[in-house]
TrEMBL record:
Residues 6-77 form the Cytochrome b5 heme-binding domain. It holds the Pfam family Cyt-b5. InterPro entries: Cyt_B5-like_heme/steroid-bd (IPR001199), Cyt_B5-like_heme/steroid_sf (IPR036400). This is Cytochrome b5 domain-containing protein. SUPFAM superfamilies: Cytochrome b5-like heme/steroid binding domain (SSF55856). The lineage of its organism: Bacteria, Bacillati, Bacillota, Bacilli, Lactobacillales.
């Protein structure tokens, strides 16, 4: 994993809008969801990229199983 560290403000810049990359944080790890179709435009089932979705993912049908398919791009410090 790349050793980049993201603060809340830095992560918020990766919201997937206007051609920007889309990143989400889960349990202190930042993942790139830019090329994940369900995250097109930085939105997925009412959630937006650029945020910590650790709590929300626990309620998703897929839970954290999808994380193994994503590229980790750094650590999230909040």
């Amino acid at each position: 994993m790349v050793e980049k560290t993201f603060t809340q403000a830095e992560l918020a810049q990766y919201d997937g809008t206007n051609g920007k990359q889309a990143y989400v944080a889960v349990d202190g790890v930042v993942y790139d969801v830019t090329d994940v179709k369900p995250w097109a435009g930085g939105k997925h089932h009412g959630h937006t990229a650029g945020h910590d979705v650790s709590e929300e993912i626990t309620h998703a049908p897929h839970k954290k199983s999808v994380l193994e398919k994503l590229t980790a791009v750094g650590k999230y410090t909040g």
